[in-house]
Amino acid sequence: MANTSDIKKGLCIIYNNDTFKVIEFQHVKPGKGPAFVRTKLKSLTNGKVLDNTFSAGHKIDEVRVETRKYQYLYKEGDTTYHFMNNTDYSQISLEKDFLDSPDLMKEGEILTVVVRAEDELPLSVEMPASVILEVTHTEPGIKGNTATNATKPATVETGASVNVPLFINEGDKIKIETDKGTYQERVKE
Questions:
Q1: What are phi and psi of 98, to 5 degrees?
Q2: pTM (2 d.p.)
Q3: How many domains does the chain have?
Q4: φ and ψ of 107, to 5 deg
Q5: Phi and psi for 12 in degrees, rounded to 5?
Q6: Taking Cα atoms as reference points, which of 161, 137, 132, 163 lies closest to residue 150?
Q7: pLDDT by residue (tens digit) across 105-133?
Q8: Can you tell me the distance from the alpha carbon of 113 to that of 94, in angstroms, rounded to the nearest whole number?
Q9: Is 128 helix (H, G, I), strand (E, B) or coil?
Q10: Which of 72, 83, 100, 108 has the fewest CB atoms within 10 Å of its CB?
Q11: What value does the mean pLDDT take over residues 173-179?
C-alpha cells in the first residue's frame, strides 16, 4: 500500500477495479486548503486516459511490476505488434493500446516491457527517451523563409509524421523525443 507521495511517472496502480499507469502527475499545494496530486492515468486494459485528483495522503494500491527487455519484431495488420524476449527468445504479441508511441518503433529496436509480477501479464511497453530515424519524405525548404522557427512536416522511416526545421532534407537522420513525438536534433554520422 502506497500513498500520494509515492506517485511518479510510470507507476502502475489499481484504481476503480482496473489497472492504470501514471502518465503525468503534479503535486499541488494551494495557498488555501489541503494539498493534492493531479494525475493523468492510462488504463492498461482498454487504453483510455482519464484525469484524476488524489487528496494528499490518499492510500493507493500499487501493482508490483517487473521490466524485461524485448526486441520489436514486426507489425501484423494495423493493431498487433510482435516482440521477442531477449533472454529466453519467447515471443509475445500486444495490441496497439499497450504501446505509447507505436508509430516511432523501428523493427529490431530493443524496448522495455512492463509485466505484472504475479501472473506475468504484459501491462505496457516503454520506449527509450528518444529514437533516431531517417527522414524518407519531406518538401524542400524555401530559402529565406527562416525568420522565425519555421517547421515543415516530414515522414520518417516508420511512417510517422514529425514537424522538423526547414533545413532537414530527405535522407537525414533525426533524433525524436518519444514522449511527445517531437524533433530534437539532426544526427550526423
A1: -75, -20
A2: 0.70
A3: 3
A4: -55, 135
A5: -105, 130
A6: 163
A7: 888 888 888 888 888 888 778 888 888 88
A8: 10
A9: coil
A10: 108
A11: 87
